[in-house]
Specification:
The structure holds two protein chains of two kinds. Chain A contains no helices and eleven strands. By secondary structure, chain A is an all-beta fold. In chain A, the strands form two sheets. In chain A, strands 2, 4, 5, 9, 10 and 11 form a six-stranded mixed beta sheet that branches. Chain A is globular and about 40 Å long. The N and C termini of chain A lie far apart (37 Å). The model of chain A has no long low-confidence stretch (mean pLDDT 90). Chain B has strands at residues 5-7, 10-13, 19-24, 31-38, 42-50, 53-56, 65-71, 74-79, 88-95, 101-103, 107-111. Chain B is mostly beta strands. Classes of the chains: A mainly beta, B mainly beta. Chains A and B meet through β4, β5, β9 and β10 of A and β4, β5 and β10 of B.
Chain lengths: 109, 112
Amino acid sequence: QQPVQSPQAVILREGEDAVINCSSSKALYSVHWYRQKHGEAPVFLMILLKGGEQKGHDKISASFNEKKQQSSLYLTASQLSYSGTYFCGTDAAGNKLTFGGGTRVLVKP
Amino acid sequence: DAGVIQSPRHEVTEMGQEVTLRCKPISGHDYLFWYRQTMMRGLELLIYFNNNVPIDDSGMPEDRFSAKMPNASFSTLKIQPSEPRDSAVYFCAGGANTGELFFGEGSRLTVL
């Protein structure tokens, strides 16, 4: 079953922060985050394993609440290059990665 | 390494024709996934392989779709016969156990 992402879209000014949420109805082994620019393939950002760890990638970080089967992606001090569609991918059955519907992010100057 | 290579990048065909999409994964990646992306349905997992063996094909929409992985360096996704609703971008992605997925650039299919 597909994880649920929210919000569906967000518009930011450069330097602002945003949070993207991802929730699943199933117990998860891991959560992956990807970013896709228009007309391009999704690109890996980070993976969070069971254990509730938090990870970072430049000024983009994420957390994973194993008990709630939820993950959040934090865009801090957003840059123009952060624009794109962000997808969470959840792995509930050992390497079967299912993606959410995506969150479109637009960062304006 | 050249990355995941997909062909063709663009395909325009008429309803009823057979379509074959090809994928060459990165050497050493033992997992291979086929995804379909549309505006309406997002990124849908169609099928995935581990060590060339199909593990889960529950996402394959109908019998018109089939996928094979005859060896570690090649996979195909075939649609026969194709229908307009099959129009989408088809991505192949590979990776190692529970790790990062590397996506190909996709095959954009238009069925008229």
